[in-house]
Amino acid sequence: MSQIHEKSPQHCAKKKLININKHHKRLIYTFTTFIISILLLILVVWFILHPAKPEFVLKEADIYRLGLLGSHLLNSSIQITLLSKNPNQKVGIYYDEIHVYASYKGQRITLDSSIPPFYQEHKDSDLLSMVLVANGLPVDPFFGYEIGRDQIAGRLELSLKSNGQLRWKVGTWVSGRYMFIVNCVVVLPFGSSAPAVPLTSKQGAHCLTTV
Q1: What are the distances in angstroms from CA 35 to CA 22, 23, 165?
Q2: Omega into 198 within 30° of 0, i.e. cis?
Q3: Where are its TM segments located (predicted)?
């Protein structure tokens, strides 16, 4: 007499659940492998191209106004022209935002001036002109004393600083946002033999860029 092997409904349910779990695990494994492969490909392309940080040169700086109201309120007006360069052969740069201001001996002497977003192709360059101003900006009480010392020395040293966000573009792929900081130092003639304003410097000054 042959034996009848009969499986309980509970046993069948467990077997079906195991099959479903295996199917889900296979899908998750396939999806994870695909994502990791894409990320590795992007990483390899990134290291092969190795985008260089942008370069900035201060082409011109003109001080049209730099005077105190009382002992610690400053009015200023400075026009500058920056040359922005993309040194990369195969990487474009999106500049999402750039804020620029001027400082003197570690203290701001203008408010921020913003540059509209723009895109820079490979090995391309752009001239960026802007006016930096301040009206009644609080400064250190010793500001007037420091300006007097520089006038005796015959030179005025300013720092033009900018910060913003950029993205790299390789083919159709665009990276996330990266913060960057630019610092330019310009020395202008400033003495009894030089007029008070405007002060002009047309000697190109290379700037330090950090990404």
Answers
A1: 20, 19, 27
A2: yes
A3: 27-49
Q: What is the pLDDT along the chain (211 residues), one digit of tens a residue?
A: 555 455 555 555 555 555 556 667 777 778 788 888 777 776 666 655 578 999 999 998 999 998 888 878 999 999 999 999 999 988 999 999 899 999 999 899 999 999 999 999 999 999 999 999 999 999 998 888 898 899 888 888 999 999 999 999 988 888 889 999 999 998 888 765 444 555 565 566 778 899 8
CB atoms under 10 Å from CB of 156, counted, come to 21
CATH code given to domain 55-210: 2.60.40
Tell me the two tokens of residue 166. 């950029």
Amino acid found at 33: T
Query: By C-alpha distance, which of 127, 81, 134 is closest to 103?
Result: 134
